Amino acid sequence: MRASRLIAAFSPQYRAFTWGVGALLIVFAALCLEERAARLKPLIRLGDLSYSTYLAHCVVVFLLVDLYRSLGRPELWPLFLLAAIVATFGLSVLSFEYFESKVSVRLQRMLMRTKDA
Question: Would you say residue 8 has pLDDT above 60?
Fold first, then answer.
């Protein structure tokens, strides 16, 4: 039953939803490049966290899927989905604040020193 819902989501009648949401996000991101969109600080913050999110989601999904399967309770999938989103966001913030931002500042300093020398 669930597999048929997944297949139905990619059928032509749902194309506006499956492809339209991604297209909408791309257009919105392009609009955010304008200066007046700089007031959208939460979206800028999400953009800053994007690489950390990309790295963190693999770890979180791997751990939670393993836990989900070991419990053997399929009715809990909404809870696990919410937990995955919250955990990924939390790990992304920690990764960005304590690793990515510090490393990028150090790399910029190193590159500027080698460029000046």
Answer: no
